[in-house]
Amino acid sequence: MQEISEERFIDIPEEVIDIYSLWRPTPLIRAQRLEKLLGTPARIYYKYEGTSPAGSHKPNTAIPQAWYNASEGIKKVVTETGAGQWGCSLAFACSLFGLDCEVWQVRTSYDQKPYRKLMMQTWGAKVHPSPSSLTDAGRRILQEDPSTPGSLGIAISEAVEVAATHADTKYCLGSVLNHVLLHQTVIGEECLKQLGKLDETPDIIIGCTGGGSNFAGLTFPFIREKLKNRLNPIIKAVESAACPSLTKGIYAYDFGDTAGMTPLMKMHTLGHDFIPDPIHAGGLRYHGMAPLVSHIYELGLIEAVAIPQTECFEAALQFARTEGVIPAPEPAHAIAATIREALHCKETGEAKVILMALCGHGHFDLASYEKFLEGSMKDLSYTDETREKVKVSLAKIPQIAS
Ligand SMILES: *Cc1c(COP(=O)(O)O)cnc(C)c1O
Predict the structure, then answer these.
(1) Which CATH number is associated with domain 14-55+178-394?
(2) Digit-coded pLDDT (tens) for 280-313
(3) Architecture of the 59-171 domain
(4) Which of 84, 269, 300, 390 is the most exposed, fewest CB within 10 Å of its CB?
(5) Dihedral, CA atoms, 167, 78, 260, 176, nearest 10 degrees?
(6) Nearest atom within ligand 1 for CA of residue 331
């Protein structure tokens, strides 16, 4: 019901608030040491979601999703995970409510991040690499390409198939859908109050976008203020140059998963069977963008930019060596864009206030840092070959008049 609700506000259940209080409110921190390193007159603030038990913003929606399922008598939930953050968050949430949890983890992530798998298992979840031979969707992909790196779209197909064929099992999604974005707005609502106390108004707000949930979580409450003419920030979504659904995709009805089992969503998409290159920011390897984020992009309420991964890791090192936090590869994209803006302020001499979503830490992404530090990380940007792959995928999306 929340997915199609027209209510302006929806109360957070008491039990959910109680669990949020384990790590919320999350800190809003001024990056003074980074400002100094860059020599910028800009004031940079980051809202840090890495203090949650799973290390990202994802528990903000995992907790209410598990709570609503448990309170309706559901015994088991299934899901997919890309970077491992969502699987961990749902596993953590299920452990609090006695729900069984089964997770399909994208193959590259399963191989690169054994500790994410172990965290999920520690919280009591069952974890499978995706594609797996446990589902029709997985078996079909494996038959075509046994060495596929997998993708979020494929993993979603597998989890949805299991939910659709078992009466006692429900599927949970960690991003993209309206109710997920709604749950994440706790980030922006808190941040509005925190900035108010500091008497600061943001000129630019920046967040990374995979499916769009941490970005929407921080920015949507600010967009409400913008629409009421109370604030006027520029809002910028940062995507991976290897999977640029907003900047290179088309706006059309498409499936949320690779096998075409989900309802159609009107969104920016690279085509549901597009398999992005295995960049290190697993959370940004999704072919589509949240319908709500796509919609406001079409309305011109936000801007978007795509950044290649080496610039992001460069930025992440600058951030870690000044602010201390080692960021996840996904928010490293937001940091790279923030640094671009801060350096622009240095040129123009403008003391702008930049607010950035630092949606998670990178403690379990250190293998990616190793690649970068030893100099073997490639950019995997949007090449001619990718363009061709996208063209082929887009030719296969459903033809529906929008
Ligand atoms: C899942 C995840 C993302 C991408 O998902 P969004 O819905 O776009 O937020 C980005 N960063 C981190 C740390 C994540 O866990």
Answers:
(1) 3.40.50.1100
(2) 888 898 999 999 999 999 999 999 999 999 999 9
(3) 3-Layer(aba) Sandwich (3.40)
(4) 300
(5) 130
(6) 11
> Do residues 200 and 353 touch, judged by C-beta distance below 8 A?
yes
* Closest-lying ligand 1 atom to the alpha carbon of residue 209: 8
Provide the mean pLDDT of the chain. Answer: 95
pTM: 0.96
Q: Which helix (H) or strand (E) holds 26?
A: none
Neighbouring residues of 140: CB distance < 8 A, sequence distance ≥ 6: 259
Residue 401 has pLDDT above 70, yes or no: no
Residue 311's pLDDT is what?
97
CATH 3.40.50.1100 domain span(s) along the chain: 14-55+178-394, 59-171
User: Where are the alpha helices (H) located in 150-290, listed in sequence order?
Assistant: 152-164, 178-184, 186-198, 213-227, 245-248
Quick check: CB of 208 below 6 Å from ligand 1?
A: yes
Residue 185 predicted with pLDDT over 70: yes
pLDDT for the residue 350: 97
